[in-house]
Q: What sequence folds into this?
């Protein structure tokens, strides 16, 4: 566990934070559809990873308030990227499902971002690339905590 009172650990945490923020910001500029907000893209990504969900479940997963999620879902529905269907057990609720249009857009976006990132990684030497490949599962774990 990092000890922020140790200079070496504090520097590593600071470098990790800074690098991930800069890389994430640069990746955001590689989007296919500039009309979608980062929040809308995040919800579509969550639906792609986790499957259909109620707006309340999405709000919890996205760490936003339910009224905010209701607005995001309404915007995505108006753009034809999600559809609302009746909940099979509780007819008072709706289930949000991504459309084929959203799946295609996410695939195109992922493809573009992966190509951009691969181009950057191509500038690393073999040792750097090996270390980055080994770090990828750890970074994924951090993202899920």
A:
């Amino acid at each position: 566990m990092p000890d922020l009172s140790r200079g070496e650990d504090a520097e590593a945490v600071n470098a990790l934070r800074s690098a991930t923020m800069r890389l994430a910001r640069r990746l955001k500029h590689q989007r296919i559809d500039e009309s979608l907000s980062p929040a809308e893209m995040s919800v579509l990504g969550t639906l792609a990873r986790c499957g259909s969900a109620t707006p309340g479940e999405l709000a919890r997963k996205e760490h936003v308030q339910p009224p905010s999620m209701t607005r995001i879902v309404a915007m995505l529905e108006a753009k034809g990227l999600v559809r609302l269907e009746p909940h099979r057990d509780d007819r008072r609720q709706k289930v949000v499902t991504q459309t084929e249009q959203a799946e295609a857009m996410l695939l195109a976006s992922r493809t573009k971002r992966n190509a951009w990132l691969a181009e950057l990684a191509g500038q690393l030497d073999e040792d750097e690339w090996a270390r980055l490949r080994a770090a990828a599962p750890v970074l994924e774990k951090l993202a899920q905590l």
